[in-house]
Amino acid sequence: MTTTNLAATNTAAAARPAARPDTVYFFGTCLVDMLYPEAGLAGMDLLRHAGVHVVFPEGQSCCGQPARNSGYVEEAREVARAQLDAFPSDIPIVVPSGSCAGMMKTHYAHLFEGDPDQPRAIAFAARIHELTAFFVNVLGVKLADKGAPVTVTWHPSCHSLREMGVSEEPKALLRQLANVTLVENKRERECCGFGGTFAVRQAAVSTAMVSDKLASVRETGAGTLLSGDCGCLMNIGGHAEKAGDGIRCRHIAEFLMERCHGG
Amino acid sequence: MSAASNTARANILGRLKAAPGRPGPDLAPWTPPTYTDKLVRFRQMAEANHAEIHDVTAETWPARLATILNNRGVGRLMVAPGTPRGDALLRAAAQGVPLPTLVPYDQPVEVLKDALVHRVDAGLTGTRGAIAETGTLILWPTAEEPRLLSLLPPLHIAVLEEDTLHDTLAAVVRDQGWAAGMPTNALLISGPSKTSDIEQTLAYGVHGPKELIILLIRKGE
Amino acid sequence: MAADGGMHAEHGPRFAERAPDALNNPQLRRNFRRAMDGLMAKRAAQFPDPAYWAELRERGAAVKARALAKLPDLLERLESRLTANGVQVHWAETTEEANAIVLGILQQAGARTVIKGKSMVSEEMHLNAHLERHGIEAVESDLGEYIIQLAGETPSHIVMPCIHKNKDEISDLFAEKIPGLERTGDVDELTAAARRVLRERFANADAGISGVNFAVAETGTLVLIENEGNGRLSTTLPPLHIAVTGIEKVVEYLDDIPPLLALLPRSATGQPITTYVNMISGPRKAGEKDGPTAVHLVLLDAGRSRVYQDVELADTLRCIRCAACMNHCPVYTRVGGHTYNAIYPGPIGKILTPQLQGLDAAGDQPHASTLCNACAEVCPVKIPIPDLLVRLRREAVRPTETPATHLPPLYSTVVKDGGAERSWTESLVWAGWRLVYTRPLLYRMVTRALAWGGNWVPADAPLMRDWTKARAKPRFKPRTLHDLARERGYLNEVPK
Lengths: 263, 221, 496
Description:
The complex is a heterotrimer.
Chain A: E1 23-26, H1 30-35, H2 37-49, E2 53-55, H3 65-69, H4 73-86, E3 93-95, H5 98-111, H6 118-126, E4 128-130, H7 131-139, E5 150-155, H8 158-162, H9 169-175, E6 180-182, H10 198-201, H11 203-220, E7 224-227, H12 230-242, E8 248-251, H13 252-261
Parallel strand pairs in A: 1-2, 1-3, 3-4, 5-6, 5-7, 7-8
Chain B: H1 3-18, H2 38-48, E1 51-56, H3 61-72, E2 76-79, H4 84-94, E3 101-104, H5 109-118, E4 122-125, E5 129-131, E6 136-139, E7 155-161, E8 165-166, H6 169-175, E9 185-189, E10 194-195, E11 203-204, E12 211-217
Parallel strand pairs in B: 1-12, 2-3, 2-4, 4-7, 5-8, 7-12
Antiparallel strand pairs in B: 5-6, 6-9, 10-11
Chain C: H1 15-23, H2 26-46, H3 50-69, H4 71-85, E1 87-92, H5 95-108, E2 113-116, H6 120-125, H7 127-133, E3 137-140, H8 143-151, H9 167-177, H10 187-204, E4 207-210, E5 214-216, E6 221-226, H11 230-236, E7 240-246, E8 250-251, H12 257-269, E9 276-280, E10 294-300, H13 304-307, H14 324-327, H15 330-335, H16 346-357, H17 359-362, H18 374-378, H19 385-397, H20 424-437, H21 440-453, H22 464-468, H23 481-487
Helix pairs in contact in C: 2-12, 3-12, 16-19
């Protein structure tokens, strides 16, 4: 497994607000909205517990990634433009998904190439933060664990790692929890095989990937798999459930909220 | 060049020239590594490349080589007459140093092919220097010291002077101004011939030499 | 959203249909997994310092980008320097033309047998088969290439062509094909057997054919790297040497070579340098005792000048063929090289093949990726492979037309067979998606409808079927995050 880090130039670490903001936007993502709303709510509640006012604009829908990745760039751009409109104030936008954050942070400038809204898209991109990185790098949160002893493992999404440059932050949060033992997966950096439409277009390859991923998760001995991306969770968790595997797959926000603030 | 090739040339270049222009980026800064002790680095890397290094002196290396080769049972050693290293060995042999039979590479390959391919056990060359970063020998074959001398015999012996160590390829290409005059063939050699095509298992001597011996002439010795 | 199958039946099975053969072959899966794990670990060990790696690859990328920016000029300079050095330069627009040129040179020299160094461009040309049809025997001398030539197969990896085979399979093959060889499982013995056979081939070959890693315009130098010595033999022992290369291999200065050499073997096989770096600047000069008396270089286009037309897609041409992208690709690792049914497999192949062969033949390849970015992370010349995959997905459904300013206007679309994957159903789906996702009220109505009835979608519905074969159905929650946020009192707007 490679340990190479990309230079910070194209990662989230490059842009940090100088001071701790008192109000942030929350971009829930479409997948969380419909399938994992409790994870999104936990993310907002955690921000609130950290002393930040959270605004959840009603006009938000999706970052546009599904269409962009399918080659439907114009459709993606229009949906992206709707997000530019939905988050008008110049405050950080916190996203409980490395993948959606990566889409907005690293692809919006190109998506709006030649479009009058490009400057707005670039400014928007600069305000994007992945949730766990925001907790660690911007808010410097301190967590107090109130839960029973448990062993967990971490699954970073590819875009969280390689677009947002978020690698150690979520693990640092988990290590703050006194009763949580984090066992690292030695194939942690390998893709779980979700890839959006890839999972159905290339169903056989995707299945091979997710079953290898689940096998590597089992090797850790942890009963719970945590991730910051619901696409991966839907894939790995769905596969674990179908395989009758007892491994629980959860969004890190929900887990942290439950341990530190009783859900 | 044939008419067809001419047409192809015109079409290819025409298409490339008609393409939208693009700015060529300035070269990004890059500082190749330097080593406080080049010899230590060279030794470490060359040995990692499976080369065998013997420290020798400018005066006694032929005798030392004789011992090394006799221990290995080398019967026929090909040398390059007209080069300092080749001539030194020929002189040493004439003076009674117990070297293997010396076979001169003194005729074109067409004449010597059978001997080169089948009937020599080792070949000896000089070197133009070496690169510490990667444990690499630099050879510029010449009319006197042909290309195949370092390639066909199963054992390649290269004589290297400590003074000619450079940090990196980048440094030597720049400092020596290679671009002003490249030879017919310039070679970088880092260890013996090897392959890992079968199950990523290293095996030496697949086509070229199975062994590389470096006779390192130490400074001031 | 799976593209309609029937339209492409004439091109044989698509990637998704070929993949199960490899996926269901446990031996193949183990061979690749083991090999790729090893290569990834070895590469990582070569770049221990992230800052130095970043600086070096920035330099490598810039060297290649600058060379591409001046490509036509550099090709002319390369030609004129090589010609001055005594190398004969030929140009071929297509692989057929390149084959004809090579055959012509060989026939003129009366050559009957050829020994070959490893060359992916010659694979692209299907050169061996062409020569064979004209009575010339071409023997591969790279051990991996020799093994697959004996087996009658094609390379499954661009650096380690027989990586799909394990030792037992090679032992059986050698015992069957090499006269007088007892079956042996010893790698040294297998290697020695190949050396014996190929030594004679080298000694008797009338010509050597090789590829080129870098061609230096400044000095007229062909740089070839290798570990075995077969590349040096192919280019030194026979009286005639023909090198074949793609036009994108030219770099401007000899000073550009060191950073590229510092990147290529490290990225490819995790070696600091290959055993041999062979820099050829001309044929044997008067008085020299060996080396070919004639050296030819064939510059092949075969679609590259078309790739060059688009400034974004032209990044593809920076590739130095290290294969790090495939070594790190979770898809390649599982299906191996043959599933791609192309000369260049893996991530680089997924962007190169559709551009060289067209989207009609290979428009499905850009979809054989999760866009995980592992390839982009390790590419030593910073080719944005995932972005180019997305660009090609777009070209397959909504092609960019060739700007009218381009001369000559040979093509209607920038990428060959643009629009080959267009599908009305898919366009409709995305048009509907756009409609819903750009209108907040409509979006909330639809998501509420899904919250209420989404779980009624049967597990065997189209698309859902492909998902539920291996996974549980996703579950829509009774209340969306929009609902929960309002209930919990989160504001809709930043307070003034």
